[in-house]
Every structure is written in structure tokens, then in C-alpha cells.
Structures
1.
Amino acid sequence: MDTMNRCVALLFLAVVLLGALLIAQDKDRRAATPAAQVAASPFMVAAANPLATEAGRAVLADGGTAADAAVAVQAMLNLVEPQSSGIGGGAFLLYWDASERRLITLDGREKAPMAADETYWLGPDGEPVSWWDAVVGGRSVGVPGTLKLLETLHGRYGSQPWADLLRPAIDTADAGFEISPRLAESIAAAQERQLDRFETARAYFFNPDGTPKAAGTVLKNPAFANTLRLIAEQGSAPFYEGEIAADIVSAVRTDINPGILTLEDLAAYEVVEREPVCMPYRAFEVCGMGPPTSGGLTVGQILGMLATVDMSALGPSAEAWHLYIEAAKLAYADRALYMADSDYVAMPTKGLIDAGYLAERAALIDPDAAMDTAEAGSPPWDEAALWAPDTQVERPGTSHFVIVDSHGDMLSMTTTIETGFGSRVMTRGFLLNNELTDFARAPGADGQPVANRVEGGKRPRSSMSPTIVFKDGEPVLLVGSPGGSRIINYVANALVAMLDWGMDPQAAVAMGHVVNRNGATDLEEGTEAADLAEALRALGHEVNLRPLESGLHAIQILDDGTLTGGADPRREGVVLGR
Ligand code: GLY
């Protein structure tokens, strides 16, 4: 890099980090207040923590690929945003391979232990155990996939040495980092949710007197540094078949709610390359991840129904949001009935996003009146299998990042340990997921099985919706979010804002949310979305105002190649690039 470029990059970094700090400290801000729009070329990264974004930026500035940067970003997120994602969890990835002009999707979702069956979440009385009783302890831990996904990605698209990409996280874990305001809030909140019941998590996140560690406390994690050093030297082998595997298996055998995951389960774990799910929308093609996540299909269904109306002409009005809400109800009804791990259950994957079917579903929407709740439809399908709906609601954890490199490769990755702090079980400096609670806890209803019931080796249904949008065959937009089962709405809101209403990524991710999961409508309090309440109630909607904690990150690729990014002002993320 020449001196001029270096100065510009440093100035840019300083401005963005200062902005992030101010945003993080201003807890009372309206969520809709946009941070500065960031523009750059030829590379950009947006992630949920400034240290993670900077780790990715440094790799990209050194000529690394998006795959290289993803390894550095994820390793750093694991350290500095440990409550949301890491090698103890799972992830879905969309990767645009510019030289082959191919969109790849990789499934690094956690898997149930082979010995699990549909009675997994039933208590001694035969009834499903309560949500928090299921979350806390080793029983909720699925076989993690994130590390193998990163290794697979790097093996295919990486250009820099694997060990070098883990170095920033190793150094930061050794030297320590300051607990961010958001992490401090999360630790304090999780004390109510039994985080301090587990000795390793207690020692790491709490002071000796039992109080939660405060923002600004320097946290060192030598155990995680050593874990990453081993992985830097030997790849994922020690994690899936060696000494880390042994520690994971031993850690899930907790006193409270012990798990049944075995060494064989870890050794058998595979990342799966799957077909992307793509939907035409206006002049665009919106591509997402297929099953076992419901994300790509449900976002696709919402857009497919909205494609029948001119959302651009309506603008972000109550009329437009009414149509959006009704489409979301219909899509979530199909999601509950049909969507699960299609390696285990027959699914009408193509039928669910069939244009004719979605036009029929859209015709059920009354422009002047809200439906109560939607019933699932009958998408075109050869199978006659019938399921009972799954009413499981995932709680928000998770993180999302987007990266464009200077070679034209780019990626959109959503990564999770499920709820904040996952199962609370920690080993070797990282938390283990509670992803098995994304399965239905009740295996059936009304004499029918639930598609998303637990089965040995199955992947739990997700809502994660990493998305890449194409126009004329070229990628033009990357987006995704955390937020449990609301993820689908957060991503669909942002897509409508950018594709129909012409908002730039920062305005779109900061826009107040309108969420419906086939029940009452949630409007984000303190934002322009809350102003819709009266008009929506007049149309018959049940409306609640509440905080809606998305973590959207987006990058748009403009016609001249300029990249513009957006980082969700509700979290601590930043956009960096050059
Ligand atoms: N655990 C969040 C999701 O997979 O959607």
C-alpha cells in the first residue's frame, strides 16, 4: 500500500471506530438513526464488532480473499462476541466465486447426536420440557459445524496460510480485549438465565464476588488462544477427532441436563454443499440458503407474494406494510408445516417458491383487512406426506457478516451458537451451542408427526437467511441478520427497503422493523415503524411495540464497482473497506 492510501485507510478506520464507539454509548438513540454511509472500492467487510471487522479488513488489504477474511472475522467474533457465534456452533454461507461465476452455498449446521430420537425433548411426564430447561446444559448441544465450514471454505477459496488468519484472534486472546458495552449487558442479562451455574463460564464472565464483569474490563482467554494454536497447526482434526473432541464430549456430560453427544458423532460431521434457493424479484434474483434453514424459502415466499403488487409505488406506507405483514403470515404458516431438514423429511422445496403457487397465496390477501392467522397452503408437490405445524420459536442469538474482496469474490455468512451464550457449557475457551432447541420439542400434534422433530443425525430447522442478490447475473447486494425466527422478517424488510424503495444499505438496516410470524405484528418501538400502529390497528392488526434487536450487515455493489455498506446501529458492528 502506498503512503497516501495508508493514510486514507487509517483515517477512515479511526472515523469508523469513533462512530461505532459513539453509537454503542448512545443507548437511547432511535434505532432508525443511520450511522454514516460507508463507501469504498475494491474491498469491504461488515461484521458485528469493530475488532472482528478490522481483522477481516487487514486480510483483505493484504490481498486475501473473502474466504481468508471470513476465517479471521469468525475467529475474532468467537473471542470478542462469544455470546453469539463461534467454533462451538454452526453456520450457513453463500459464496460468490467470481472466476467460475458460481454461487456456492455451504451448510455447517449443527447435527443431533445419532442416538437422539423424537422423544429427546420430552420430560418424564411425556410432555415437552420448558424452553429454558431445554437450553441450559449439555443436552442442547449439537455437533458443531462452523470450524469445518471455515476449513472447507479456506481449502477451496483461501489464498493465505490458515495459521496466519487465526493469528489476530490468538494474539488478542493472549493480550486481552476490553469487554464491549453489548457483551457486558449480555453477561448481566444471562446471569438471570443461569450462565453462572456452570463453573467455566462463571470463572470467565463473572468476578470472584459473583458480579458480572463490566464493560471495559480486560478479558484474556489463554484457553481459547491455545485452542486456536492447535487448530492453526493441525486444522480441524483435533476438534473433530482429537483432544478438543474429547473435551467437548466430556464437557457436555454436565451435572445439569447432561448431553449424549459422542466422539463418533463429532468424527462423522460433514459440511454439505447445497443448491441455493433463488427467487426472481422485480429486475433481481434473490438467492438464499435452502433447507435445513427455512430462511431462503420463507424470505423467497414473502418476496414472491409481494412481487404481485407495486411496492415501489406504495413506498413505506401503512398500505405497503399491511401487504407485507399478510405475506409474512402466509409464508410463516407454510414454514411451520413444511420446512425442516430435507435430508430427513420430504419437502416441497420447489413448490414453495413456485410463482403460480405464490400468486394464489397472494390472492388470499385482502388489501383492506388483516387476516387473523394464516393457514398453510398446498404447494405443488408429488408427495402426499402431511405434517403437523411446528410452533417452535427460536430466541435471538447469532451474528452475520458480509465480505467483498478485491478479486470480486464475496460472501454472506450467518453464524450462531443459538441463544445468547448457547448451552452455557464452555470448554477450551469457547461456548458450545444449544442448537438442538431449534428442533420442535413436541414430536407431533393431532396424530401427525412434526417435520422438524428430533431425529438422530438430523439438522435442526433454522431461520438464518444469508442472502446475495443478483441483477443481470452480477451480484449487487449482500445481506443477512441474527434474530432467531425474526431473522426472516429483518432480512425481508431490508430487501424491500433496498430493492423497492431504493434505500442505501445503511438506511435500510437502520429502518424500524415490522415483524410478523403469523400472529400479532411487532413494530420496533422508538422508530418510524411505531408510527404505523394506528393505521395498522384500523386494518384489524393486533400490534405490539417492542425493541427488535436485529444485527443486519449489508454491502451493495454499485454499477461502477463502488461498494457501500451498512452496519446495524442496534449493535456494535462497523463497515470497513478501501
Ligand atoms: N438458532 C437460530 C437459527 O438457526 O435461526
Note: The pocket of glycine is lined by residues 394, 398, 416, 418, 438, 462-464, 484, 487 (CB under 6 Å).
2.
Amino acid sequence: MPDTWKLKDKNFNKYLLDKDIQTKVSELATRINIDLDGQTPLFIVVLNGAFIFASDLLKKVTIDCEIAFVKLSSYQGTQSSGVVQQIIGLDLDIKGRTIVVIEDIVDTGLTLDRFLETLRVMEPAKVLVAACLLKPDAFSSKFPIDYLCFSIPNEFVVGYGLDYDGLGRNSGDIYKIVEE
Ligand code: 5GP
């Protein structure tokens, strides 16, 4: 992919390289394979943004596991709307299960916080979180992120599944917005 990318009215610079992301994803998978061996975890992939991260991660998870998908949303354009909507729900019984929620990016944490609350009501044995990216300066929630690839500044990014108004998901590299 090129070093700069124009998506609609915004310019983006290449920020995290595909190969460096893959190295981190492999490290996370190795840790998960060790930590959760024998627990047959259920991975819950938060769509849409986590689809590439989850695919890369789960191809490297070698322990027995199940995979489910849920769709949540609190973003419009480059701003969090603050309103969390669960669009596609979860129809599995998770009581007593080890759950790993796979998220693309944790910003304020609001989206995931609400979802984790919903899961806890369903009495899983434990709920862990795997995220590709975290913006620590925006994070205002309390839940731990058990498996994380990168902490990044509080700036808008695209690529590796993340979009700007629907565009930009189809890149192995991650791009950061150029503030003008
Ligand atoms: P939060 O509820 O943690 O504030 O927002 C989480 C969701 O907002 C993420 O799952 C993602 O969909 C979206 N989001 C947060 N920051 C970014 C960003 O920098 N770029 C993109 N494309 N989406 C983001």
C-alpha cells in the first residue's frame, strides 16, 4: 500500500506496517494458546472492524475453540456518537464458558463496556478482551485489556479492518489521519 492515502475528504499517512502487526498478532496467539489451553474458549468477534484482526489471530490459535460474531456500533465518521447499539445479537448459551471478546480498537471503551455488562449477565466463567489497538488517552473505562497489540495516540486511524465512512478497511497496514 502507498505511504499516503486519500479517503473522501481526508488524508492519511502510513503508520503501522503489516509485518509489524503480524508479529504482534503472533505473540498474542502464542499467549492465548498457552493461557487458555484446555478451556475451549468462545471467541466473540466484534464486527465489522475486527474481521481482519480476528482472522489473522484465530488462524494462529491452535487450541480447541469456538467463534461467534456480534455487531456493535458507536461511531459515525471520525467521532464516537456515544450511543451504543447492538445490531446483531448473540444467540449462544455462554454460561460457565471462557469468553474472549475480539475488538479492533478500544477508544473510550464505552462500546465494549456495555457489551461486557451484557455478557456478564449471561454468567460466563470469565471474560477476556483481545484488542488490536488501544487509545489510552481516550480510554475512560475500567475493564482490563488482556491481549493488546498496540497502544496508539488519540488520533483517528484506518486500515486493517478499520474504516472512514465505509472506506479503508482493505489494507494490511494501518494509516493515521493527517490533521489539516
Ligand atoms: P469506543 O466505544 O471505545 O469509544 O469506540 C470503539 C469503536 O469505535 C471501535 O470498535 C471502532 O469501531 C470505533 N473507533 C474508535 N476509534 C477509531 C479510529 O481511530 N478509527 C476508526 N476507524 N474507528 C474507530
Note: Residues 49, 74-75, 80, 103-111, 156-158, 162-163 surround guanosine-5'-monophosphate (CB under 6 Å).
